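Progress note, sequence design subtask.
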């Protein structure tokens, strides 16, 4: 008999499993249909001895000291500031767009102040910024939008940026200085020994049992548990009652080359050419030294494991129907990117999981006796 069954051994499920076991002494069963823990952040050493990410690059960054310090219980860190180049017009230039990007592409020698005016001359007025296209053309104009964003977004999401919510491209800033870091967060680090080791430490508790290659649908009526935390697709939980929520998938081509380095930074984006969106070289992330190098070519797809909820208005409306069902489902907590249909970063999922734990504590205060029953079900939105 378990106090909790947690479906999914990624960030949401693992963070909650550790909190429930450590802080409350609850007995927790974590299941995952994959043959490993860590969800999409799973990393492993390949045949060349390179620590690589099975599901594409995962770069940890956050402005939350609380989230950083929480995860620091389970890993040491190595400082790492992520840098990305984009191949545009046959030249590798920094992305997000900055002063060097514009000067290199156009053969200019602008200062930061001059670049502000240069952007302003090209920016198109938009009455109401609703879409990803609106975000970009209102800041830097249509030409840079076409060069950097339109093709990449169409490959990544399968739809034009004019059909996507503004949140997608709003994630990528535009800079007038020479800052070529992809993120601006206070904490930018990588787990020193990898994400999988961090998850192993998180789940290493006598009250936590992990079952891999286990499908929830096959065991949901076979295992005794009091309450459920679900981190998978919410539409799947409800047997697609209102139809399938659209998710974007990915496929990966992992290659090892007999050369020390392949590219100057960890990730190179291809907004204008190629079927793949980006190429990742992992030694930049891990700091490993090797005469060989491992790369991942990333291909977006409509079919396959769900990775990204697609932020469009009609999808949000469909999700609201499932959200209403979730609120009527007692003793089930929905947490994570797929269960709450939100395009969260890793740190945001950790924050959501910690917030959900606090709500669990309020709803089911732990006493020497059995935890209180009958609390209202809720979504774990933090």
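Output:
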């Amino acid at each position: 008999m378990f106090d909790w069954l947690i479906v999914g051994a990624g960030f949401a499920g693992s963070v909650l499993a550790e909190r429930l076991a450590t802080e409350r002494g609850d007995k927790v069963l974590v299941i995952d249909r994959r043959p490993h823990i860590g969800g999409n952040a799973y990393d492993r050493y390949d045949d060349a001895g390179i620590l690589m990410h099975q599901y594409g690059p995962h770069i940890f960054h956050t402005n939350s000291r609380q989230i950083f310090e929480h995860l620091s219980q389970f890993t040491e860190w190595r400082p790492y500031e992520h840098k990305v180049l984009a191949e545009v017009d046959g030249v590798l230039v920094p992305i997000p767009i900055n002063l060097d990007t514009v000067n290199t592409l156009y053969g200019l020698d602008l200062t930061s102040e001059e670049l502000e005016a240069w952007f302003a001359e090209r920016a198109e007025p938009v009455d109401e910024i609703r879409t990803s296209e609106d975000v970009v053309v209102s800041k830097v104009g249509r030409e840079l939008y076409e060069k950097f964003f339109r093709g990449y977004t169409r490959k990544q999401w399968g739809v034009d940026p004019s059909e996507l919510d503004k949140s997608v491209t709003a994630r990528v800033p535009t800079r007038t200085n020479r800052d070529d870091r992809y993120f601006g967060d206070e904490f930018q680090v990588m787990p020193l020994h990898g994400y999988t080791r961090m998850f192993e430490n998180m789940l290493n508790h006598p009250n936590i049992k992990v079952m891999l290659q286990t499908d929830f649908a096959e065991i949901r009526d076979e295992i005794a548990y009091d309450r459920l935390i679900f981190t998978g697709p919410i539409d799947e939980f409800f047997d697609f009652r209102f139809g399938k929520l659209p998710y974007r998938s990915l496929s990966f081509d992992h290659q090892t080359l007999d050369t020390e380095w392949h590219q100057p930074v960890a990730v190179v984006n291809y907004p204008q050419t190629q079927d793949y969106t980006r190429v990742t070289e992992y030694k930049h992330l891990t700091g490993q030294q090797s005469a060989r190098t491992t790369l991942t070519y990333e291909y977006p797809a409509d079919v396959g494991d769900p990775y990204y909820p697609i932020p469009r208005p009609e999808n949000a409306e469909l999700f609201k129907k499932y959200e209403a069902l979730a609120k009527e489902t007692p003793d089930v907590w929905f947490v994570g990117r797929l269960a709450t249909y939100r395009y969260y970063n890793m740190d945001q999922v950790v924050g959501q999981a910690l917030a959900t734990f606090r709500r669990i504590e309020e709803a089911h205060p732990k006493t020497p006796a059995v935890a209180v029953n009958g609390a209202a079900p809720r979504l774990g939105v933090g």
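The first helix runs from residue 11 to 24. Work on this subtask will continue into the next period as scheduled.
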